[in-house]
Design brief:
Elements (H helix, E strand, L loop, with lengths): L1 E10 L2 E11 L4 E5 L6 H8 L7 E6 L2 E2 L4 H6 L1 E4 L11 H11 L4 H14 L15 H13 L5 E5 L7 H15 L3 E5 L3 H7 L2 E6 L2 E6 L1 H7 L4 E7 L3 H9 L4 E8 L5 E7 L6 H11 L3 E7 L3 H9 L3
Parallel strand pairs: 3-8, 3-9, 6-7, 7-8
Antiparallel strand pairs: 1-2, 1-4, 4-5, 9-10, 11-13, 11-14, 12-13
Helix pairs in contact: 3-4, 4-5
The structure holds adenosine-5'-triphosphate.
């Protein structure tokens, strides 16, 4: 559905996107992640034909987004970061206006606008002025707008930005439902959302792609994926030494706590669970043990590992 080859964008002296290549298959829901200024919005704006690239190419549904822009855009529903809406229009009136602008005839417009009001949960506010709507409802109007011409592909730039937790949940559910019949590329900062909704993730930083895989694979491939935390009443040096001699243990660090307790963090090879062996070791040495748990890596750990600057 999307094919991007060596896409770059330079603003004056700043290269915001540096030769990125990726693809999104039909039916996928892909999270597009990266820290502030990584180049997400710039990439999405190029993909939707709003910004010409400095070099490289991109196809949507087989159409070159720059040379066959109209054909490509017919197949894209784009919801930009801050949805620009006409404040003085009523919801239904606005969606009808947008549908006509996108080339739907009056019959199609009536039908699609009706469907979108229902799909996006806007029926109760269809006669309200847009300026009186809450941010959550405005986002829904933006989504309905991006969907009204029945595109195959939805490109959403931070659709839950600025929403409260309830609104985030509602938009997330809506996107999940839309993903049943659309291909979705969604940029967001909420990593738990991505773990819940996306079947693949692309991480971009400094204009370059750092990783592209399923959330599960990314987590499993992490260097610091395997970590065990244990609290013992033991001499830090002796215990660190004994633990680090265990098989498949890569590194041990310790931190003194209260009343002779020490917390040890044990890095092990990915896929290894050292808890039982650490427990046996504590029993063997007679060290009192009050906590032993395995840190389950999350997408947030992957994100931090791939994009931190130190
Ligand atoms: N029109 C522009 N002119 C000059 N520089 C720009 C322009 N648009 C973006 N940039 C720069 O390009 C870089 C990438 O910006 P972009 O908006 O794509 O990042 P982003 O990943 O979407 O960030 P955020 O998460 O903050 O929205 C930034 O350094 C930004 O300042």
């Amino acid at each position: 559905m999307i094919e991007v080859q060596q896409l770059s964008k330079r603003f004056a002296r700043h290269e915001a996107v540096r030769g990125i290549s990726f693809s999104v298959d039909r039916g996928e829901i892909v999270g597009f992640l990266g820290p502030n200024g990584a180049g997400k919005t710039t990439t999405l704006r190029m993909l939707t034909g709003y910004l010409p690239p400095t070099s490289g190419s991109a196809q949507v549904a087989g159409f070159d987004i720059f040379r066959q822009s109209l054909e490509a855009r017919k197949r894209i529903g784009y919801m930009p970061e801050n949805v620009p809406l006409y404040e003085d229009m009523r919801v239904r009136e606005y969606l009808k206006f947008r549908a006509r602008l996108k080339g739907l005839n009056s019959k199609q417009t009536r039908q699609r606008v009706g469907e979108m009001l229902e799909t996006c949960g806007l029926e109760a506010v269809r006669r309200k002025m847009i300026k009186t709507l809450s941010k959550g409802y405005r986002q829904r109007v933006g989504l309905a707008d991006s969907l009204v011409h029945n595109p195959d592909l939805l490109i959403l730039d931070e659709p839950t930005n600025g929403l409260d937790p309830n609104q985030i949940r509602q938009i997330r559910e809506l996107i999940k439902r839309l993903a049943e019949s659309h291909t979705v590329l969604v940029s967001t900062h909420i990593l738990s959302e991505v773990e819940m909704t996306c079947n693949r993730v692309i991480i971009i930083d400094g204009g370059k792609i750092k990783a592209a895989d399923t959330p599960t694979n990314l987590i499993n491939q992490m260097r610091s994926a395997g970590r065990v935390h244990v609290e013992l009443q033991a001499d830090a040096e002796v215990a660190s030494g004994a633990i680090s001699r265990l098989d498949r243990v890569k590194k041990v660090s310790s931190e003194a706590l209260d009343e002779g307790w020490t917390r040890f963090t044990v890095w092990v090879d990915s896929g290894t669970d050292a808890r039982e062996r650490i427990n046996n070791l504590a029993a063997q040495y007679g060290w009192p043990l009050r906590s032993l748990y395995r840190h389950e890596a999350t997408l947030e750990d992957v994100f931090v590992e791939l994009t931190r600057k130190d």
